Fold this protein.
Amino acid sequence: VAERGFNRPYSKVGTSTEFEVGDGGGWEVPPSKDPHLYNEWAQKNRFVVNDTLHFSYKKDSVLVVTNTEYDKCESPRPLFFDKDGDTTFLLDRPGLFYFMSGVSGHCERGQKMIVKVLDVESPPGHGHQSPDANPSGGHNKNKSGASQLMLMGFTSFPSLVLLLMIVRFVIMMN
């Protein structure tokens, strides 16, 4: 599903957020010194179902492809294709989305991105910078306590230590 017309870096619309891919730098081949630019950008953000990604580009295209096609930088039949220079893509389900440029050679030079989309029922923090956007799949009720803490955004050691100190203090007070 593609929509057109959004052109704002981060804006809230109801319960969804519109993200400008690359924080306004546009969808283009990243500099050779930074070939992971788009995946680093995606990992810094938390996406939930019904958020949108806006791609702004010239003489290029946006493809949504399978994991295998993403790894090969080749897609004879993409799941989604647009080349009008102003593409807004609706993240309509939880899971992983694989994006790449359809211009020959661009994907191989780093113009590709994996976006992990959380279910709407995911923990707070939506639309904010995330210390870790682990692309390992969706929510699993059988995850360990540590995994659940990571899903809640407690992925850095200092934040986990702080949480444990607070829990210990609360236990001592009771």
Observations:
- The longest strand covers residues 112-118.
- The beta strands are 2-3, 10-13, 16-20, 47-48, 52-56, 62-65, 80-82, 86-90, 95-100, 112-118.
- Confidence is low (pLDDT under 50) at residues 1-9, 128-155.
